[in-house]
Design goal:
The complex is a heterodimer of chains A (about 210) and B (about 1050). Helix content of chain A is about 40%, strand content about 0%. Chain A has ten helices and one strand; from the N terminus they run H-H-H-H-H-H-E-H-H-H-H. The mean pLDDT of chain A is about 90. In chain B, strand 6 and strand 7 form a beta hairpin. Helices cover about 30% and strands about 20% of the residues of chain B. Classes of the chains: A mainly alpha (about 210), B alpha/beta (about 1050).
């Protein structure tokens, strides 16, 4: 006997180990490699410490004061620097971030905001098509009014889009309440959603060219 | 091959696309059975071993880069500091401006994406456009972003600066101030801009001894001189084609290359509706030596040798006189000199044909029209107008109006004379300074005047232009000109419509407009192009309320529409003097033997668009050649020379199929000769060679260089005049790229055509008579229900389409379609989503022509969808055949299975090498495709979705008919393409689909195409048909 007896089990355990390893690798990529983990939670440092919590939350500014093309075009629009200065020529002029903002403006340079929500180039998403059908900001962007530093809260993956396009009722509300992020429906949320779906003729399409052209 | 197919060997096709197809040679048939030409699928630059090496390397790199891509790269959003008004990011804005090509002025709307112009559309309010465009205007946007644009001042070819130029020229101009401009010559193209004309006036006032030379190589001088003789005033003829019932075109390609062709094409198409009946539908007779697109739509095309064209018209005129029209004495002399100037024997023309033609014209007095081509000598123009007057057409189908641009150009003689005078002055050494303003005389001047060698005697030669061309390199100074979308300008179109050309973008490089350069050099009141234009118009309309008017002009793109007074029929009192000057043989067209006709190329014009890759790759409408020109000869001349039309088709390795190796011929005139490939074009006049000008740029920038053959050295008369030449076969061959036979459809009834008599007898002829026998049309799958909601469909009217190809360019601009280059076209890899098929019909020597735009048919039972292994091509609920680029893995099964052969595959990485400026042209609403992806017509789905979102945002669930216009339909001058919702019975497209002329292509395959065609109906003269039948 050259090999001891226990070596008979080596091939078996080797196979089991390999199988577990293979499954783990697949699982790791499948689970942690999905947009749910790679994208959600992305919270980059912005060049200016703008707080949505302060502006949209505590002060209750409407989202559309700054993102004013959200119901008109594809992009919600990052506001022009002059929009900030509408107020900040009067308010908190000496705060270091406002000084920085004024420097950008005076130099004629755009503020290099870091993009958080990014869809692939082959996706032609249109904000206005959603907002005008009663989809609130909260459905994709979460409680931005509670974020000091904005982070991504939804995966923005195609499967996630399709979930809503196939059953939108949970995300449809009165158009007047779109930017009221703290609003919660009284009674059955789905019932409420269906009411406005009928009213706004919400019939989300799932053809490929709806988003890919 | 399908058992449904008619055996091609049994019946020679009545419609054919090349001589090989007509002959059905075994090589040709072998080629047909492949869906891509031989070699199309193979990598070009790499063999297998190299491929594996490269692949190995890229796998290794992929492994490395895989490690650190844990999060996506940081991406910035850069907002405006101060946002422009009314700008919604992602929504294009449209600005009205004006495009000028030579004498052609067209009002356009330019699509701008956040300050980046991307696409040209027609301005519906401008009479020359009426919402459509020509292909030159459509493609002109590419020149703005061309990496070949001139960006720097050059002195003797070396890089210099604007300051050096201004500094160098200041003492020269000061010298002229002292001597009144002695020795100063300014050469420009035809002037249509009032503000530029004001600068010209200023210069000639300040420098009275200076001379302005207006030189346009391709021009309408003959028409102008002829009209002056016939009418006695400097007028333009305004044709009302829509009210003409019988049209005789004498070498006039009025649907493509004549002035105002877009409006003419629209008006002509309106008269071609067969539902107007025998009394209402127009009939077009056409006499020409070449084969033009207008010849393709003619009901009777009469092949005439170039030198015989004047005689042909004179014979018609004489026949009209015999039938009772009374010509005045001067006009009779016109007929006589036209007959005597022609060299050939008059007996060539069938007297019965001429007499029937004349009788038909005479029977439609006041509703007939004679059009004479711009290349015909003045004599023929005068004669044409004499006939028009006698037929009572003046005032009904022809109006004479004083030319609004006459005053701008009147101090320079006709171009052909002006350039000779200038060359003579240069030779004498009296020209000290020559400014070449946006012109390329070194390339385009007739060879015998030796412009280039005389240019070296000019002390200060300056070239202003958008590219570093031959003239730029021969001149002392070259200064870069800004593109028309980068500066202010204005223009008057020939019908008197004045419009402002506004810039869409600041100059990309340090460039100036021609007005700005001359204003600064000669110290004009204003310096900036805006001030020059605005100042000019303020001085004309007064300062009161000017700002309001100015804003309205900019918004509409028009200052005033053509309200030129009709100057009446005029008088022919000047006829004697005119005859004396123009009846000599030199002015007529006495040449004999084999005759050469040189004229501008329909795509690259006189050469000025040779560096535009869209226009280079756009197949020439008749021959479908691209990236080259060739000597077109008829089959009879080919036989005489012993040339066989050979396509080398090899099935094994070696010469790939689709390559056209054509025999070279040497064309000699005087001391000059030119060797170029011969292309046998059926339907050419006997003993005639046609060569297009504009190719063979020797020092052209970028792609222009090396493409084609320069025929200018053979030109020693005016463009378009017949030149007697010797032709010999050299024995060598040359490879041409042609899209003619790719994706052939074998001999199935793809294009359906009948005459008015047949149509009135059997309106359903297109559906009834051409249907192939087929098994029951049953589907293997359960068919979808398309009866609800909006269902998109398209009709293409073959009767309106004249083959001008603007749809192909418009589609390329809208859908980011890449250019592949000559080598790839040879391999059958062109990417155009629209293939404009050209079929010859009937006799080889004198065939008819039909065009058919072939694009994705959006079949309800799409064969491509069934075979895609990854569902990259699927059907939408609204009937679109969708192509999902991101799913496509490039198996090309779909293209295999497409019976229409309309799918295009990205064989190479065509979009990766774009320069930064080229990227700016791309439409942001359409994906730029990558290598290995299939693509095809989408019905401009981006426009459908934008319209849908726009209407839904306003609470409107239904998109009204006409709100969605695909790019091809928008650019089409004849409205041949109609798109809409076929479920709405009132929509235009549904009405057309219910029309008896409507038919689908290959419907026997049960594909249920959403794109259908309206059969072509011609309106031939029954009496002439009887003649030709009795002759055979």
């Amino acid at each position: 006997m050259v090999f001891p007896r226990w070596t008979n089990k080596v091939p078996f355990w080797l196979l089991v180990t390999l199988a577990v390893l293979a499954c783990s690798i697949v699982f790791i990529f499948w689970y942690w490699g999905s947009p749910k983990h790679l994208e959600v939670g992305y919270q980059p440092q912005q060049p200016i410490n703008f707080s949505h919590k302060l502006h949209a939350g505590q002060m209750g500014m409407d989202c559309r004061y700054c993102h004013h093309t959200v119901d008109k075009g594809k992009f919600a629009g990052v506001p022009a620097t002059e929009t900030c200065l509408n107020c900040h020529t009067q308010i908190k002029q000496d705060a270091p971030d406002i000084v920085k903002l004024r420097e950008f403006h005076a130099a004629g340079k755009p503020v290099p905001w870091v993009r958080i929500h990014k869809l692939p180039d082959y996706v032609y998403f249109d904000h206005s098509a959603h907002v005008n059908k009663g989809v609130s900001c909260i459905s994709c962007h979460g409680r931005v009014d509670q974020m000091d530093v904005v982070r991504q809260v939804e995966p923005l993956s195609m499967a996630w889009c399709m979930d809503c396009h196939q059953a939108p009722a949970a995300n449809i509300r009165d158009k007047d309440l779109i930017t009221k992020l703290s609003w919660t429906p009284e009674g059955d949320a789905l019932e409420n959603g269906r009411k406005f779906m009928d009213m706004y003729h919400v019939k989300p399409r799932t053809d490929c060219t709806t988003c890919h052209r | 091959m399908s058992p449904l197919n008619l055996d091609p060997k049994k019946a020679a096709p009545t419609q054919w696309r090349s001589l090989d197809e007509l002959a059905m040679s075994p090589e040709f048939q072998a080629g047909l059975e492949r869906e891509f030409p031989e070699g199309a699928s193979e990598a070009t630059e790499l063999d297998r071993r190299q491929f594996l090496q490269v692949m190995g390397a890229s796998f290794a790199l992929a492994g490395l880069t895989g490690c650190d891509v844990v999060r996506r790269p940081k991406h910035e959003i850069l907002p405006y500091n101060n946002a422009p008004e009314h700008l919604i990011p992602g929504k294009p804005q449209f600005y009205a401006t004006t495009v000028t090509v030579g004498e052609e002025v067209m009002g356009v709307l330019v699509e701008s994406h956040q300050g980046r112009p991307t696409k040209i559309e027609g301005n519906p309010q401008h009479p020359s456009s009426q919402g459509a465009t020509g292909k030159l205007q459509q493609a002109s946007i590419l020149d703005l972003y061309s990496p070949n644009r001139s960006q720097k001042v050059l002195k003797n070819g070396a890089s210099s600066t604007w300051d050096a130029f201004w500094g160098g020229m200041a003492p020269v101009i000061d010298g002229f101030r002292a001597n009144g401009g002695e020795g100063l010559r300014i050469l420009s193209g035809y002037i249509v801009s009032p503000s530029f004309a004001a600068i010209k006036q200023h210069i000639l006032r300040e420098f009275p001894k200076a001379k302005w030379v207006v030189y346009e190589p391709v021009n309408r001088d003959n028409a102008r001189i002829g009209l002056l003789g016939a009418v006695g005033k400097p007028v333009d003829a305004h044709y009302r084609i829509e009210s003409a019932k019988r049209i005789l075109s004498v070498d006039s390609d009025f649907l493509e290359s004549e002035l105002n062709h877009v409006a003419h094409a629209r008006a002509f198409a309106k008269t071609r509706n067969p539902d107007l009946g025998k009394a209402g539908m127009s009939r077009l007779y056409l006499m020409e030596a070449r084969y033009s697109v207008t010849g393709g739509v003619a009901d009777h095309r009469i092949r005439v040798k170039p030198s015989m064209i004047p005689a042909a018209l004179a014979l018609v005129a004489r026949e009209l006189a015999n039938q009772g029209l009374t010509f005045q004495s001067g006009e009779t002399q016109l007929i006589d000199s036209a007959l005597s100037a022609s060299n050939g024997t008059i007996a060539e023309f069938s007297p019965q044909l001429i007499s029937e033609l004349a009788a038909d014209l005479a029977a439609h007095r006041g509703a007939s029209l004679i059009l004479v081509g711009k290349h015909q000598p003045p004599l023929v123009h005068a004669l044409g107008h004499a006939v028009n007057r006698l037929l009572g057409n003046v005032g009904t189908t022809v109006l004479y109006k004083i030319s609004p641009t006459f005053a701008f150009n009147q101090d320079s003689p006709a171009s052909a004379v002006a350039i000779r005078d200038l060359a003579a002055d240069m030779e004498k050494g009296v020209v000290d300074t020559l400014l070449m303003i946006d012109a390329n005389p070194v390339f385009t001047a007739p060879a015998d005047i030796q412009f280039t060698s005389h240019l070296s005697k000019v002390r200060h030669s300056v070239h202003l232009g958008g590219e570093v061309n031959e003239s730029a390199q021969a001149a002392l100074w070259h200064i870069p000109q800004s593109h028309y979308l980068e500066h202010w300008d204005d223009a008057i179109s020939f019908d008197g419509t004045t419009s402002i050309a506004q810039p869409l973008i600041s100059p990309l490089y340090t460039t100036f407009s021609k007005s700005e350069v001359l204003a600064k050099l000669f110290d004009y009141r204003y310096r900036e192009s805006l001030d020059i234009v605005k100042g000019h118009w303020m001085s004309r309309s007064g300062a009161l309320g000017f700002e309001i008017a100015w804003r309205r002009w900019l918004h509409d793109g028009i200052i005033e529409t053509g309200a030129l007074p009709d100057s009446g029929p005029g008088s022919s009192s000047g006829m004697d003097a005119f005859l004396k000057a123009h009846s000599s043989s030199d002015e007529g067209s006495r040449e004999g033997g084999i005759e050469l006709m040189l004229f501008e190329h329909p795509n690259v014009h006189d050469g000025r668009f040779a560096s535009n890759s869209w226009l280079q790759e756009l197949p020439e409408p008749i021959t479908k050649l691209c990236w080259d020109n060739a000597a077109y000869i008829g089959p009879s001349l080919a036989q005489k020379l012993g040339i066989k039309d050979q396509i080398i088709l090899k099935n094994d390795k070696g010469v790939p199929m689709g390559q056209y190796d054509k025999p070279m011929i040497k064309v000699t005139r005087g001391g000059h000769s030119l060797s170029l490939p011969a292309w046998i074009l059926p339907g050419m006049a006997d003993e005639t060679v046609v060569i297009h000008l504009g190719y063979g740029r020797k020092k052209g920038p970028g792609i222009a260089e090396g493409a084609g053959f320069d025929a200018y050295p053979l030109l020693d008369k005016r463009v378009g005049q017949p030149l007697s030449v010797q032709v010999e076969v050299t024995g060598s061959t040359y490879t041409l790229a042609c899209t003619q036979d790719h994706w052939s459809m074998e001999s199935r009834p793809i294009v359906r055509e009948g005459d008015l008599e047949l149509y009135e007898r059997r309106p359903n002829f297109s559906a009834d008579e051409f249907m192939n026998p087929h098994p029951p049309l049953a589907s293997l799958w359960e068919e979808h229900d398309y009866s609800k909601g909006m269902q998109w469909g398209m009709t293409i009217d073959l009767n309106s389409c004249n083959g001008c190809s603007v749809c192909v360019v418009a589609c390329q601009a809208e859908n980011n379609i890449p250019v592949v280059g000559k080598g790839q076209v040879i391999r059958g890899r062109e990417m155009h989503w629209i293939r404009l098929d050209r079929y010859f019909t009937g006799d080889v020597d004198d065939p008819g022509l039909v065009f058919q735009a072939m694009l994705c048919q959006h079949c309800e039972n799409a064969p491509c969808e069934a075979v895609c292994p990854v569902s990259a091509t699927v059907h939408s609920k609204e009937g679109l055949n969708e192509m999902v680029y991101n799913r496509c893995i490039g198996t090309r099964y779909c293209s295999n299975n497409c019976p229409y052969k309309v799918r295009r595959f990205n064989f190479s990485n065509l979009t990766n090498h774009y320069s930064e400026s080229e990227k700016m042209q791309k439409n942001p609403d359409v994906t730029v495709r990558f290598r290995g992806v299939m693509e095809k017509c989408t019905y401009c789905v981006q426009r459908i979705e934008q319209a849908r979102i726009g209407f839904k945002n306003k609470g409107n669930e239904v998109i009204p008919d006409g709100a969605i216009v695909p790019a091809c339909a928008q650019a089409c001058p004849t409205d041949a393409i109609v798109f809409g919702n076929i479920n709405d019975p009132k929509s235009r497209v549904a009405v057309l689909k219910a029309h008896p002329r409507n038919y689908g292509v290959l419907t026997e395959l049960n594909t249920k195409p959403r794109t259908t065609y309206l059969a072509k109906v011609r309106n031939p003269n029954p009496a002439i048909l009887k003649l030709s039948r009795s002759a055979t």
